[in-house]
């Protein structure tokens, strides 16, 4: 059996635009977050340069997120089988995948990651606009600035937590996952093991076509 | 070894007392603004512009004396004119020289992420170093007095330097030198506090200003620019002087506990994934041998 297309070219491009812009935001953001990491901004072309680009790259990241919302939100809806699977998540963590119930195209962890990133992205955008032009906020609305500073750092920290787990699982833990988001394809065995309901749907689609 | 400032002790051919004589210039300096003797002449504004080399700006007229509407990146020092009607119907015209307060606990400095962009000298002066400023304007958010102003062209933030260049050479700030009524004073913080208390007491005892007092707010650790106010219980009537200025709690949280909490969470997250990998390793997929004759 031939490999199965898991991510279209457009999906992969969206993922990598979001991924690369997120890494830039993460590095420059960390530089502004802690004096011990300020050197990152200098390495990336100087701190004023980093301050200049951070909001613009953030906008590109937001656009990629918005596109992900358009293309994936139906796939990312949490379903009944997901909840059954979630109860058995300790098997997943222990790599006892044969004991897990069948699920669709994404597991509930991926879905949580997706929604966490979307919500964090929305909060980062809202607070980020305030931090972009603080001098435009009138003095009697200064509460907006105070809230934005806390919101921006909090949402960023939550997204970093999600990002660490995402990168670990996508590169080291789930073998085949990284190739799938680069070249778009997975082996039938991979699809069967991780996303059996999706695999069965794909097989059915193939049969009905032929 | 001493590197004491060049403070004038005597002046030849000078009528009257030597300006600044007998005031000690210790480590801690302060500017005292006695708003009760300010006449709103704006000489301090002009002196500030002259010393800092900024052009005089277009004035605006809106039927008040407020011909300069606000502080600006190249306008550090502004008299705010306020017409105030008290509860008993008495009217007063209040003038307050507005500018950086040089807080002992500066919110701008706490909020600033750029290495070296804001320095606080041991004498109390808080100074912006535009060479190191990255233009993020976190200082604008950290300041409880609404002072720092952004130059959108150079992307640098500016504010009153308390003439750190002049003070470093043993001179008083330019505004002090220009004040014709003597409502501006400069000296050590102790001396200025003493002078301020004396003046406030005088006002309380010899005028109708029973609430006269010194504005040296404790919420920011005291300031190196202080006011004598007719009514220290209502500083807001002097054009938005906060009654209890504090660094915003969100700024304190962000620059305090969230620093180590965030670092802990990030390092913990990375360590957690490493531990997981060491304990459980990767998820391998057993590739099935295609059954004979199977086709899809």
Task: Give a concise summary.
Chain A has 210 residues and is mainly α. Chain A is built from 10 helices and 2 strands.
List the helices and strands and how they pair.
The complex is a heterodimer of chains A (about 210) and B (about 300).
Chain A: E1 4-5, H1 9-33, H2 39-43, H3 47-72, H4 80-87, H5 89-93, H6 108-132, H7 142-173, H8 177-182, E2 185-186, H9 188-194, H10 196-209
Antiparallel strand pairs in A: 1-2
Chain B: E1 29-34, H1 43-52, E2 78-85, E3 91-98, H2 107-111, E4 118-120, E5 126-128, H3 138-142, E6 149-151, E7 156-158, H4 164-168, H5 174-178, E8 184-188, H6 189-206, E9 213-215, E10 225-229, H7 249-255, H8 257-280
Task: Characterize the structure shown.
The complex is a heterodimer of chains A (210) and B (296). Chain A has 210 residues and is mostly helical. Chain A has one domain (4-209): Transmembrane di-heme cytochromes, Chain C (Fumarate Reductase Cytochrome B subunit), CATH 1.20.950.20. Helix content of chain A is 73%, strand content 2%. The longest helix of chain A has 32 residues, at 142-173. The mean pLDDT of chain A is 95. Chain B has 296 residues and is of the alpha+beta class. The longest helix of chain B is centred in the last third of the chain and has 24 residues, at 257-280. The chains are: A mainly alpha (210), B alpha+beta (296). At the A-B interface, helix 1, helix 3, helix 7, helix 9 and helix 10 of A face helix 3, helix 7 and helix 8 of B.
What is the CA-based Rg of chain B, rounded? 27 Å
The CATH topology assignment of the largest domain in chain B is Alpha-Beta Plaits
Main beta sheet strand tally, sense and closure of chain B: 4 strands, mixed
Fraction of residues in H or I helices of chain B: 25-40%
Mean pLDDT of chain A: 95
- Poorly predicted ranges of chain B: none
Distance between the amino and carboxyl termini of chain A: 14 Å
Number of helices, counting only DSSP H or I runs of 4 residues or more of chain B:
8
Could you spell the SSE succession of chain A in H and E letters? EHHHHHHHHEHH
Looking at the structure, the CATH topology of chain A is: Fumarate Reductase Cytochrome B subunit
Chain pair forming the biggest interface: A-B, 50 and 48 residues
Adjacency order of strands in the biggest sheet of chain B: 8-1-10-9
Count the E strands of chain A.
Answer: 2
Give the C-level CATH assignment of the largest domain in chain B: Alpha Beta
Structural class of chain B: alpha+beta
Count of distinct structural domains of chain B: 2
CATH architecture of chain A: Up-down Bundle
């Amino acid at each position: 059996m031939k490999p199965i297309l898991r991510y279209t070219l457009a999906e992969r491009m969206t993922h990598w635009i979001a991924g690369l812009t997120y890494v830039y935001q993460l590095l420059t953001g960390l530089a502004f977050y802690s004096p011990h990491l300020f050197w990152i901004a200098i390495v990336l072309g100087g701190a004023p340069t980093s301050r200049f680009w951070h909001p613009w790259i953030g906008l590109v990241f937001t656009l990629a997120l918005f596109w992900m919302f358009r293309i994936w939100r139906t796939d990312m809806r949490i379903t009944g089988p997901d909840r059954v699977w979630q109860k058995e998540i300790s098997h997943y963590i222990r790599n006892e995948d044969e004991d897990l119930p069948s699920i669709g195209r994404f597991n509930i962890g991926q879905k949580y990651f997706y929604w966490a990133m979307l919500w964090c992205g929305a909060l980062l955008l809202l607070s980020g606009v305030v931090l972009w032009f603080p001098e435009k906020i009138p003095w009697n609305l200064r509460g907006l600035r105070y809230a934005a500073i806390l919101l921006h750092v909090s949402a960023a920290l939550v997204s970093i937590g999600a990002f660490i787990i995402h990168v670990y699982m996508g590169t080291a833990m789930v073998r085949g996952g990284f190739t799938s988001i680069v070249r778009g394809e997975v082996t039938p065995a991979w699809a069967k093991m991780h996303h059996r309901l999706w695999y069965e749907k794909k097989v059915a689609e193939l049969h009905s076509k032929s | 070894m001493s590197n004491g400032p060049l403070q004038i002790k005597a002046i030849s051919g000078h009528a009257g007392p030597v300006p600044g004589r007998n005031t000690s210039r210790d480590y801690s300096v302060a500017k005292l603004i006695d708003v009760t003797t300010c006449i709103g002449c704006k000489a301090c504004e002009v002196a500030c512009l002259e010393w800092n080399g900024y052009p005089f700006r277009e004035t605006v007229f809106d039927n008040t004396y407020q011909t300069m509407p606000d502080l600006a990146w190249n306008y550090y020092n502004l008299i705010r004119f306020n017409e105030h009607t008290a509860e008993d119907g008495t009217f007063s015209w209040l003038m307050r020289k507005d500018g950086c307060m040089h807080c002992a606990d500066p919110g701008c400095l706490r909020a600033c992420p750029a290495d070296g962009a804001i320095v606080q000298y041991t004498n109390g002066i808080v100074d912006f170093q535009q060479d190191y400023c990255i233009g993020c304007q976190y200082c604008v958010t950290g300041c409880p007095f609404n002072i720092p102003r952004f130059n959108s062209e150079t992307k640098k933030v500016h504010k009153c330097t308390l003439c750190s260049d002049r003070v470093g050479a043993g001179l008083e700030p330019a505004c002090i030198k220009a004040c014709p009524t003597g409502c501006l004073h400069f000296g050590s913080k102790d001396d200025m506090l003493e002078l301020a208390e004396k003046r406030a007491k005088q006002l309380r005892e010899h005028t109708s200003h029973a609430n006269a007092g010194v504005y040296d707010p404790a919420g920011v650790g005291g300031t190196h620019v202080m006011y004598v106010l007719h009514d220290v219980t209502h500083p807001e009537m002097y054009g938005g002087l906060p009654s209890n200025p504090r660094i915003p709690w969100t700024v304190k949280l962000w620059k305090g506990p969230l620093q180590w909490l965030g670092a802990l969470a990030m390092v913990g997250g990375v360590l957690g994934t490493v531990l997981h990998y060491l304990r459980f390793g990767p998820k391998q997929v057993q590739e099935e041998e295609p059954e004979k004759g199977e086709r899809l």
